[in-house]
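#lab-general

N.A. 3:47 PM
ok so I finally got the sequence cleaned up, no stray characters, all 91 residues accounted for. can someone with queue access submit it? mine expired

B.Y. 3:52 PM
send it over

N.A. 3:53 PM
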Amino acid sequence: MEKTLEICRSFSWTVQVEQFAPRNFFCSEKMECLESEAEETSKKLFHFCRMMVEKDVKEYIESNKPESEKVIQLDQEPITEQDELTRSKFF
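B.Y. 4:20 PM
back already:
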């Protein structure tokens, strides 16, 4: 009978916002698997943790940008300067 292992992987990222003000992001996951699946499971867990941390870092950076630097997500085409005059009809 094949041996069962518990694999634990983690990923962390520190964003230095300003001097002495780090923001730490961390993810850790574990899973049981067969010994023959350990390497693949380890890779998958690491990839998952890294994706989660990168997502959180991106959200943090985006939410802490000055208003003038934030990108507005639109469901339609961006408004051009030419459209600016007619824009008031819709609001």
